[in-house]
Amino acid sequence: MASALRTGLTWLLSALHDPRHVARFQELCGVRGPFTGNRAGARDSGGGGGEKVEGTQRRRPDREGKGKEQDVNGAVNGTANGAAGESARARPSNGSGRDGVARGPLRKNSLTGDVGHQFVISNRFLYYAFTLGTELGNELFYISFFPFLTWNVDPYVARRLIAIWVWVMYLGQCTKDLVRWPRPASPPVVKLEVFYDSEYSMPSTHAMSGTAVPLGLFLLTYSRWEYPFLPGLTLALSWSALVCVSRVYMGMHSVLDVIAGFLYSLLILAIFSPALEAIDTFNLSSIYAPILIVSLHAILGLFSFTLDTWSTSRGDTAQILGTGAGIAVASNLNHQLALIHDPPASMLPMQAPPLSLGLIGWSLLRFVLGVVMLIVTRAVMKALTIPLVCRVVGISSQDVRKARQHMQVELPYRYIVYWTVGFSAFFLVPFIFSCIGLS
């Protein structure tokens, strides 16, 4: 009985990990690549009855003695993960044809500079919907959403939601580097996005953040703000579903990656949520909180850099930890200076103010000015930090991409830059708003 159950579970996991299911879903949604329709080649790439959950990678040392993970198709983490051959490569194009619109990935690979291969979209609605879904898990969204929530809605909810996001993303990135599964093979999968293609695949951190953020937002706001339960829960679940499904549509994850990310995020939420009150109270009121938070996040960053050879996920992890540390320190300073006040318990639950042109105008003004200040802060810190760190550690900064592949450069660079961005979003920008009468 146990053996049959184990065999059935292994078959199910193998089937859910099969890249051919991703390719079929893409074709059903109107996505075609240069190799779509050549199902014989797809079967060869898919590995017969689906990719095996175990044994898809083998260890191969490089010349310096450091191991790199290589999947059965030869993709190496840090180069082209599950990438198509050169014959499938093409520069991005937006030309139209009889059967659809020819396009290329919106952004090139963040590590290799690869532009990806061209594909044809015959269902524009799904393309734009799932592009929106995948952007809900990218940096541009978070650098806009979290500050807007802080400056215009509820700082209490914002800082607790960010604490959830930091832990979910950190654990997700570390798990990727422990499991070390490659991205879905291409062909048969069409890669609509290549920006994160050099990272590992299991679990989907887009699915994790796309689950933790909307569900965490719902759990944190339902008892503080008056709104109907069912529409709020429906919106949160719809947000999560859009992000999760978009990762399969983009060809970045197998069905199993997304399911695992969704369930893993729920597990972290269930464990972490009861501790939020104690963590937030400590972050705000303890005089030791700033130094402990900065030190803990830096140590976690050092640990994550030891899990595998360098890839773009190293920098993303340092970025997430730096942002969380900066926001926590800023929140502590806000509390000490009474710059941002949480509403007293007697005011709960709060009602959303009626919409007016004045409310919308002031909110947009705070948002636009604040985001501009954050973008300028990030640009200045990037320009200053990379040369400074390279000089301190003795690494040439002539080739920035190559220099950032060293832990001594990438970890402090990302941590310092995004610590500053997080601190600015929660302290510097609100302080300026209070000085000019925008708070």
TrEMBL record:
<dbReference type="InterPro" id="IPR000326">
    <property type="entry name" value="PAP2/HPO"/>
</dbReference>
<feature type="transmembrane region" description="Helical">
    <location>
        <begin position="229"/>
        <end position="249"/>
    </location>
</feature>
<feature type="transmembrane region" description="Helical">
    <location>
        <begin position="256"/>
        <end position="275"/>
    </location>
</feature>
<dbReference type="GO" id="GO:0006670">
    <property type="term" value="P:sphingosine metabolic process"/>
</dbReference>
<feature type="compositionally biased region" description="Low complexity">
    <location>
        <begin position="72"/>
        <end position="85"/>
    </location>
</feature>
<dbReference type="GO" id="GO:0005789">
    <property type="term" value="C:endoplasmic reticulum membrane"/>
</dbReference>
<protein>
    <recommendedName>
        <fullName>Phosphatidic acid phosphatase type 2/haloperoxidase domain-containing protein</fullName>
    </recommendedName>
</protein>
<keyword id="KW-0812">Transmembrane</keyword>
<dbReference type="Pfam" id="PF01569">
    <property type="entry name" value="PAP2"/>
</dbReference>
<feature type="compositionally biased region" description="Basic and acidic residues">
    <location>
        <begin position="51"/>
        <end position="71"/>
    </location>
</feature>
<feature type="transmembrane region" description="Helical">
    <location>
        <begin position="355"/>
        <end position="376"/>
    </location>
</feature>
<dbReference type="GO" id="GO:0042392">
    <property type="term" value="F:sphingosine-1-phosphate phosphatase activity"/>
</dbReference>
<keyword id="KW-0472">Membrane</keyword>
<feature type="region of interest" description="Disordered">
    <location>
        <begin position="33"/>
        <end position="107"/>
    </location>
</feature>
<feature type="domain" description="Phosphatidic acid phosphatase type 2/haloperoxidase">
    <location>
        <begin position="159"/>
        <end position="273"/>
    </location>
</feature>
<keyword id="KW-1133">Transmembrane helix</keyword>
<dbReference type="InterPro" id="IPR036938">
    <property type="entry name" value="PAP2/HPO_sf"/>
</dbReference>
<feature type="transmembrane region" description="Helical">
    <location>
        <begin position="287"/>
        <end position="307"/>
    </location>
</feature>
<feature type="transmembrane region" description="Helical">
    <location>
        <begin position="416"/>
        <end position="438"/>
    </location>
</feature>
